[in-house]
Amino acid sequence: MPRREKPKLAVFKLASCDGCQLSLLDCEDELLAVAGEVEIASFLEASRAVVKGPYDLVLVEGSITTPHDAERIHQVRRAARFLVTIGACATAGGIQALRNSKDVHEFARYVYPSPQYLETLNKSTPIVDHVFVDFELRGCPVSKRQLLEVLSAFLAGRKPVVPTYSVCVECKRRGTPCVMVARGTPCLGPVTQAGCGAICPAYERGCYGCFGPMESPNTASLARTLGDHGVDAPGLVRAFRSFNAGADPFRRESEIHEQT
Amino acid sequence: MSRPEAERPAAKGRTPGTAAPRKRAPASRTIRVDALARVEGEGGILVRVRGARVDEVQLRIYEPPRFFEAFLRGRAFTEAPDITARICGICPVAYQMSSVHAMEAACGVTVGGALRELRRLLYCGEWIESHVLHVAMLQAPDFLGYESALHMAKDHPGLVAKALALKKAGNAIVEILGGREIHPVNVRVGGFYRVPARRELAPLAVELAEVRPVAEELLRWVSGFSFPDFSCDYEFVSLRHPSEYPFCEGRVVSSKGLDVAVAEFEEHFVEEHVAHSNALHSRLRARGPYFVGPLARYNLNFDRLPSGIQEAARRAGLPEVVRNPFQGIVVRAVETLWAVDEALRILGSYDPPPAPFVEVPPRAASGAGASEAPRGLLYHRYGIDARGLIQDARIVPPTAQNLRTVEDDLRAFVEANLDLPQERLVWRTEQAVRNYDPCISCATHAIPLRIERLPG
Q1: Which end of chain A has fewer CB atoms surrounding its CB within 10 Å, N or C?
Q2: pLDDT at residue B451, rounded to an integer
Q3: What mean pLDDT do residues B199-213 have?
């Protein structure tokens, strides 16, 4: 029987912190097993060996913030059989999408003495705004467990099992008392997609939404409840405008409170 | 900044080190490397050689600018640790620590006792995971001639597996104390959201005691590598504490006599913007380029290491002052062993504090904080208003401080090694950059390499 060729995995990075691809290297118990199942064809954070595409599975971390990356992502797409975006930058524009509601040229002048050296776009946008994406994995950073699930699913040719319900479900499952009900702590859990394992409430703080909006979130209702818990309008703008500021439901809700 | 497509790794298949004809000037010879790998972030190196002389060196930073200092304005001072953590997924704890210390300095609050110990414990976790990642997975393959740790694992499976177990123990500290390894959620201005009970930390002590021999083995292993004979006249800069190996406190000192408070940092250090880089380059106002990171910390704080660690360093063949950046890998292994011991010490004497945090009421003020990230000194300064909203932010990451020194190293290193075969020189030059464990995500808030040889 001919030896089956290992599927080729490639990892690319755009504007981001490296944390989501680091999640792969942080799979200490599974890393060598993963490396045995796939050919790591391009993963610059880990290896200087680069194998030519096309690739069976491409993971993309980071958002599009420069004209160059806006072109480059099309090359990446062309080289990818399946393209999976990982993390809040790639799926929603990330924290750098805070520029989207401001003047990026003013930002550039503030940070850099010679902003004319920079080439940057007005908005930080997710990959799906530019090319077709086969699957989006949320999180700032992504969960290792979900990342392994996505890898296994694509290798096995099935759909990844990644729930779209809210963090509240994970809190209940974990047995964490509701921080908003029991302690009056403002929490984005009711509108935020599960996946992290409901860490923040387990550490006695409210969820700050790093996995982005759940499927059909009722952000208006949560905003009223947060208001009842003493969050003022600028506080609501900040709450919805953080690591997933560019995700539509959060962006819309933040804009509503900016006007009040 | 525009750049030729061929320098980029995306969707290109060329292996680093292969020659490609240069289109625009066919008479001259260009050796191109698409990407310097095993660094955090995106950048490139350009070295132009004419005859026996290096004409030009550029460590080019492609990592897109993300403007953290700009969008921090108007955010609550309590958000700084969560937001600045996102500058770097490799060393989020460093950003959290520098930011909370800056905010506490602004508000006139000092955090001591068990909360301070827990912060040190968290930092130990980050040093262990980050150092072991660099030592075993990013840097060691260079010394043994492998493309990556995964290639290396085929010949040294036991060793790589052990190093992963050590790295995992560091991550376990950050996960248990911080909630997760990357972008931990438990750090706040004033302390933590929740402090662990003694029994929650107990498994960490067991795990660390188990991997301590691995840290010793790692140190023995890397000390046996062969190091190119190389050094420049560096000015080392790090924090120095009256009695401890430095994490979050102390004065900013240098090997050429600088000794200032963290609050005076900006009087002595400036950042400049150069055309080929999306990262600012730092220099000492008085003298120019300087060197931060494990080598600097070790050289300036050797006397603050416990005698057992000093002894381990000597056994590994290190002098008290290490001037060869290629030996940085050994110093990282020494610091890893120290961090394991320091974590065990903290765990052994841990008594939960009466409250998880100290109240930090905001006031209109400015405050500076600095801590020793795995890659070196990380400076933050914030101005906040009476409501606690950030008015002004300044962040100086370690890699930006080292960029000038890295470029100087490249110039000296390439000039001294022009007789090496081209492919070997290219790899060694990449390695000279990886000595600094550069974090380009940090520096802007990988590095493609190109060595051009022009006719002499």
Answers
A1: N
A2: 55
A3: 97
The three state secondary structure string of chain A is: CCCCCCCEEEEEECECCCHHHHHHHCCCCCHHHHHHHCEEEEECCCECCCCCCCEEEEEEECEECCHHHHHHHHHHHHCEEEEEEECHHHHHCCHHHHHHHCCHHHHHHHHCCCHHHCCCCCCCECHHHCCCCCEEECCCCCCHHHHHHHHHHHHHCCCCCCCCCEHHHHHHHHCCCCHHHHHCCCCCHHHEECCCCCHHHHCCCCCCCCCCECCCCCHHHHHHHHHHCCCCHHHHHHHHCCCCCCCHHHHHHHHHHHHC
Question: Could you report how far apart the first and last alpha carbons of chain A are, in Å?
Answer: 69
Q: Residue B436: what pLDDT?
A: 87
pLDDT, residue A2, reads 52
Contacts (Cβ under 8 Å, ≥6 apart) of A43: A9, A10, A11, A21, A24, B148
Q: Model pTM greater than 0.90?
A: yes
Mind listing the domains of chain B with CATH numbers?
68-401 (1.10.645.10)
Tell me if chain A has a CB within 8 Å of the CB of B272. Answer: yes
Please give the pLDDT value at position B400: 84
**Residue B96 CA, distance from chain mean position:** 14
Query: Chain B residues with CB inside 8 Å of A86's CB?
Result: none
- B242-281, pLDDT tens digit by residue? 999 999 999 999 999 999 999 999 999 988 777 666 667 7
Q: What is the pLDDT of residue B28?
A: 36
Spatial distance between the Cα atoms of B17 and A28, rounded to a whole number of angstroms? 30
Query: What does the pLDDT look like over A97-137, one tens digit per residue?
Result: 999 999 999 998 888 877 777 788 999 999 999 999 999 99
Alpha-carbon distances of A47 from B137, B138, B141, B152, rounded to whole Å: 9, 8, 9, 10
User: Residue B260: what residue type?
Assistant: V
Can you list the alpha helix ranges (DSSP code H) found in B224-293? 265-268
Say if CB B105 and CB B263 are below 8 A apart: yes
Side-chain-facing half-sphere of A206: CA atoms under 13 Å: 21
| Whether residue B412 has pLDDT greater than 70 | yes
β-strand pairing of B43-50 with B53-61: antiparallel
Q: What domains are there in chain A, each with its CATH number? A: 8-156 (3.40.50.700), 167-258 (no CATH)
Distance (Å) from the alpha carbon of A258 to chain B's nearest alpha carbon: 13
Q: Is B180 on the interface with A (CB under 8 A)?
A: yes
As a whole number of angstroms, the distance between CA B233 and CA B102 comes to 32
Contact A49, A25 (CB under 8 A): no
φ, ψ (nearest 5 deg) of residue B391: -105, -25
Chain-centroid distance of CA B344 in Å reads 23
The share of chain B scoring above pLDDT 70, in percent, equals 85
Is some CB atom of chain A closer than 8 A to the CB atom of B287? no
- Judge whether residue B177 has pLDDT over 90: yes
pLDDT of residue A248: 97
pLDDT tens-digit profile of B6-56?
A: 333 333 333 333 333 333 332 333 334 445 566 666 677 888 888 888 888
Could A19 and B89 be called an inter-chain contact, meaning their C-beta atoms sit closer than 8 Å?
A: yes
Nearest CB to B9; choose among A20, A44, A120: A44
Conformation bin of residue B355: beta by default, left when phi > 0, alpha when psi is -120 to 50: beta
Query: Shortest CB distance from A203 goes to which of B8, B79, B179?
Result: B179
d(CA A68, CA A64): 9
> Shortest Cα distance from A214 to chain B (angstroms)?
20
Distance CA B250, CA B329 (A): 25
Contact A107, A99 (CB under 8 A): yes
Q: What is the Cα–Cα distance from B87 to A103, expressed in whole angstroms?
A: 20
**Helices (H), ranges, B224-366:** 265-268, 294-301, 307-315, 328-348
